[in-house]
Amino acid sequence: MTFNMGGFFTDDSWTPSTIIQQDPTLPVSASLKKVESAKTSNKTDTKGESLSSLIQDALSPYKKANIEEINQRTSFTVTAGYDDQGNPNFKDANGELIPGIYTDIPNDVYHSLPAISSSMIKKFLISPAHYYRAYVDPVNRHRTSKALERTFDAGTYAHELILEPQGFYDHYYRELSQAENPELLSTLEELKSLCKDNNLKVSGTKQVLIDRLLEADPTFGNRIFDVVKKQNDEKNAGKKGIDPVVWDDAHRSCHAVRKNEWADKLLSDGIAELSVIARCPETGRMLKVRFDWLSYNGVPVDVKTSRTVNPQKFIYQFADLKYDVQAYMYSFVGRLAGIPIPRCTFPFVSVEYNEADICEVFEMSDEDFRIAGTNYHRAINELVDCIENDDWYGYTRGTASTIITLPKRGRV
């Protein structure tokens, strides 16, 4: 894609430390919708996977990025996350982070990097006490329901299908669904009935009945769901099974995105999952961001799965989850690393799949982008102050009462 980068982010006099003082009269880049497409260690993580295995997976042939090809097409320099021996290019001999733009850093490794992330800033903006609970002295109170777990999984797999589909079917398979195979016997009563029809004992657990039936006639296995499912799992040994509902949700989400002409254009001709490390010019702290997608021209795109993408409702989720601050910080850190990200340009490709399959693309107004910038710069300076002084107050400093005025609905 060819984009007009605009004066705000391409002016030679631009410096990160003065970004929020930039002249608001500078020319705005062309609206995206008017642009036509141009033809290491062995430490084990909480999931039981070693970092070395994650790194090897990132270096596998179907995932490893073609650095030479990428750098031929960009005006910025991208570096492989690891050398051919699996050593991190993003760390020096002392283990300190090296600023740069990197491919192929596993997600868990990225999250472990000692740098300030967008998630940290967003948590701090709720209150310093929230940041403290999440990152300084964490307390695990998470109790995830199966339904919520499926929602998280569907979003994760949808991201992979949309952004990095190559090799997806080498890593995953769709588990069998009982609902889609109603002719197969599944319940204890159904198995007892089959045993009775074949003059076999009907006592015992479900597995005992299955074993009894298979011993009497192995072909009974073709009629029993648990047996057929086990055969399918064994056929896909080495792959991760995905719940059929989650699998279908992820694939429908991907289809909805690709069916949206504008979303499909935005997510073409670029690089997925680029990790960027830069030093903050205001605080001296290391910063990190991870772009879902970055076009070769430097246009970032973020993919979100949501309960609804109705614009009138999505704006509340957008504000509540502070996507505006994420967009600003990603643009800011990307620019620090040398990526020519256009002014106030950060499309969110958003998709819902629960009650309908709909994809919408959202962009913030320039004014909201500037407000997000003000909030980001205030937050990172206050965060560093809290870190240095070990001062983790709540919503207020708590030195006096807070006078409140009830909303109209709270008055008689």
UniProtKB/TrEMBL annotation:
PROSITE patterns: SAP (PS50800). Residues 183-217 form the SAP domain. InterPro entries: PDDEXK-like_dom_sf, Put_RecE_PDDEXK-like_dom, SAP_dom, SAP_dom_sf. Signal peptide: none annotated. This is SAP domain-containing protein. It comes from Photobacterium damselae subsp. damselae.
